[in-house]
Design a protein that fits this description.
With 396 residues, the protein is α+β, with helices and mostly antiparallel strands. It contains eleven helices and 13 strands. Helix 3 crosses helix 5 and helix 10 packs antiparallel against helix 11.
Length: 396
């Protein structure tokens, strides 16, 4: 990790002619189970991982903001005034920075000077491991440090979500930012997205590991059917509200949903709602299974989650189905499912450590025969949430 900051500091010097003052890290995340439930007021079970976004930064004496990413060198140095709240063209990653700053201003924070920032991410772009939320929380912790702001962590999380929803234009729930903001090493977060009550659950997998399987198909949330799924589940709530006092599908259990589902007039909307309700139930059951060290039951719930995401929510596609369903048939794999929004991105598998090589070989061969190109594999190490790493001069 030190080498990353040395590299970024050198890039910073090349771009801005002086050393940065501080270094920061913000992770990506996986969601063990509980997919597309966060904007439906249900439960999620994410964890922050050790892949993420690294940054080095310094305050300026004027109001200019200058940004550079080693991942998007073609965009060069992005510059704007700290008070400029207009959206940038060409899908610039600077919009995420502007969105977070604007959201922070909305909470009463103010910025009298600008800053310079150089970042590098090792989360594959469009992988569904939440590179955008990782960036948003990096901006949050950086601003907190450079402007000496006394901001509760939940406010930083909310600013990331507001940036995504209001500025970038993707109607995400709060899970990604929450996982990245509150993540702890070797813990997952059992979060009720309706009440924001959460529990840190130790991850004790024994001889098993979580392997991330990347489709290497880029997924652009804003261009996907993500917002369509949000609208469909909102439509289900609207129709059920004529008969039930609910605000979210996450408030329903399975039997109650089955009793009232016939009041939803569109068959597709019924399927979307069914997934949201039962995925919430599966998430509750999965956390109980993990606490009881019943990894077999946890794996079965992962498999059921993927089936629902494929058949009822229809957000998987041939890439994710090939990865997850091939993995499910391998000895030593307890369960596999897509993770993240879907439409490409990644799947995860709960695998005995002795079977990891076999998983990569068998799944990789099958995927390449179907898709014509190879997937990528990573063992998911669960790490700390977004944080200030230290002052640069400490390295000298």
């Amino acid at each position: 990790m030190t080498n990353v900051y040395e590299k970024l500091s050198q890039v910073f010097v090349n771009k801005f002619n002086h050393m940065p003052s501080d270094k920061f890290f913000s992770p990506g995340r996986i969601n063990l189970i509980g997919e597309h439930t966060d904007y439906n007021g249900g439960h999620v079970f994410p964890a922050s991982i050790t892949l993420g976004t690294y940054g080095v930064a310094s305050a300026r004496s004027d109001k200019q903001v200058k940004l550079y990413s080693t991942n998007f060198v073609e965009q060069g140095v992005i510059s704007f005034d700290i008070d400029d709240e207009t959206k940038m063209s060409n899908a610039s990653w600077g919009n995420f920075v502007k969105g977070v700053l604007q959201a922070m201003k909305g909470y009463g924070n103010y910025f009298t000077y600008g800053f310079e920032l150089v970042i590098e991410g090792d989360i594959p772009n469009g992988s569904g491991l939440s590179s955008s939320s990782s960036l948003e929380l990096l901006i949050g912790v950086m601003a907190q440090k450079l402007y000496n702001l006394k901001i509760p962590r939940l406010q930083l999380v909310a600013c990331g979500q507001r940036a995504e929803n209001d500025f970038v234009g993707v109607n995400t729930g709060i899970m990604d930012q929450f996982a990245i903001g509150f993540g702890e090493k070797e813990h997952a977060i059992y979060l009720d997205t309706n009440t924001m009550i959460y529990e840190m659950v130790p991850i004790h997998l024994g001889a098993y590991v979580v392997v991330i399987m990347n489709t290497n198909k880029r997924r652009e949330l804003a261009e996907s059917k993500y917002n369509e799924r949000v609208r469909e589940t909102q439509e289900a709530v609207y129709q059920l509200q004529k008969y039930l006092k609910i605000e979210f599908l996450g408030e329903l259990d399975g039997p109650t949903f089955e009793k009232y589902a016939h009041f939803i007039t569109n068959k597709t909307v019924v399927k979307r709602a069914r997934h949201a309700v039962y995925e919430n139930e599966r998430t509750k059951a999965a956390v109980k299974a993990l606490k009881a060290n019943d990894l077999t039951a946890f794996g079965q719930l992962m498999n059921a989650s993927h089936k629902s995401l494929k058949e009822d929510y229809e957000v998987t596609g041939i890439e994710l189905d090939t990865l997850a369903e091939t993995a499910q048939g391998i000895s030593g794999v307890l369960g596999a499912r897509m993770t993240g929004a879907g439409f490409g991105g990644c799947a995860i598998a709960l695998v005995h450590h002795d079977s990891v090589d076999a998983l990569e070989k068998i799944v990789g061969k099958k995927y390449e025969s179907v898709m014509g190109y190879a997937p990528s594999f990573y063992v998911a190490n669960i790490g700390k949430g977004a944080h200030w790493v230290g002052a640069i001069q400490e390295d000298k």
